[in-house]
Known about the structure:
alpha+beta
Amino acid sequence: MKKTLVILIILGLACGGILYYRHYGKKSEIVYDTTTPVRGSLRVDVTASGTIQPVNIVSVGTQVSGIIEKVFVDYNSTVKKGDLIAQLETFTLEEDLKEAKAAVTDAKAKLDYAKLNAKRNKELFEQNFIARYEWEEAELSAVNAQATYDKAIAQQKKAKRNLGYANIVSPVNGIIVTKEVEEGQTVASSFQTPELFTIAEDLTKMQIEASISEADIGQIKTGLPVTFTVDTFPADTFNGIVDQVRLQPTEDSNVVMYTVVIAISNDDLRLLPGMTAYVTITVEEKHDILKLQNMAFQFRPVTGGTVSAKKSNVERQRIIQERKSLQPNEAMIYVLEGNTPVARKVKKGISNLLETEITEGLSANEKVVLEDLTTKVSVKRGGPP
Length: 385
């Protein structure tokens, strides 16, 4: 009985050993996820969002106070330069003009009398009938009368101009975007010119004011091509061009932003003021180049249990020094030779979020290590992580 028990224990240990070997015996096997560089096109983009606006928006107000008697336009009305769009009640302005004209007539009469009196006193002084100061006083009265007359003329011109301001006309060709007044409303221009209408000068030529972060603004230059979409036409892509990079920064949530103006064409008038545009600015694009996944630049061999860990100390120090001496356009990758990742210095070109151009140090048929899958393979087989 004891002999049988011993035999069973030995058989159990043997089976356990076999199972352990099957599950964990290959734990030291190294498995790498690799990729090869490919030839193709690479584009560097900067994305942002902005608001579509007319190129020129004109605010129309009034320089005189009064009651709005007539409004001749409404929202979306098309107007031409010089068109009458509203009119103020003119009774007070007409009376002001009449008063100014009467003041001119009075001042003219007083001026003529003062000039005649000065001429008469001059003759009397020359004949020694009056003192010199009497003649000088007459001359001074004539000068004052002339000044009063000139002032009355100016007041008359001003009153006439104010009466003209009662007719509010469009200063440009365009479309009425906003209308802030209705007939019978009183407007006051005592402290500032009230805004009555807003006119978009030409909706066939629009612009996007996009906000670009300081991290990307250095790449943006005038003339770069732009594509964008809007929510109302999600399946359509529109085109534009960078027209201006404004130097005035703004700060949003501790991020410095710059406004980039993008000129767009809107001949079919599908795009409306105020729409949100999702912008893609193409900074640079190259074709038929060698490119590599960016993940390859993040790989570092692990220490312990791998072939890379068995490298000599001299070799490890050499790689560390090379990595420290890398230039901004250089990077360290690992090329698989056999089953051993070997450090390789390469030169980079343009780069986006996914891929980077390789200009030197790598050929299209070489395997580049992306990740060490040894741990993941062991876990999949049932071994400890």
